């Protein structure tokens, strides 16, 4: 699964959008949502580290 991008995307779609089908639109939504959540988490972590170390 680690080397199969489609299988990864289908897994992400099933996790984030469990009631959607495997259409291109649903896969695109899941991909966008996953990247958005990942960026938000990275920003939260960076802000927390910055705050913790007085930056």
How many helix segments? 2
What helical percentage do the residues reach? Answer: over 70%
Q: Pick out the low-confidence regions.
A: none
Largest sheet: none
Q: How many domain modules?
A: 1
Strand content: under 5%
Order of helices and strands: HH
Number of strands: 0
Overview of this protein structure:
- The longest helix has 29 residues, at 24-52.
- The termini are far apart.
- This protein has two helices and no strands.
- The protein is elongated.
- It has one domain (5-52).
- It is mainly alpha-helical.
- It is 75% helix and 0% strand.
- The protein has helices at 5-16, 24-52.
Topology (SSEs and partners):
Layout lengths: L4 H12 L7 H29 L3
Put the structure in a nutshell.
This protein is mainly α and 55 residues long. The protein has one domain (5-52). The protein has helices spanning 5-16, 24-52.
Main attributes of the structure:
single chain, 55 residues, mainly alpha, 2 helices, 0% strand
């Amino acid at each position: 699964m680690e080397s199969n991008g489609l299988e990864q995307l289908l897994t992400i779609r099933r996790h984030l959008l469990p009631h959607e089908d495997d259409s291109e639109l649903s896969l695109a939504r899941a991909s966008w949502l996953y990247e958005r959540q990942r960026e938000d988490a990275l920003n939260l972590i960076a802000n927390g580290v910055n705050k913790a170390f007085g930056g």
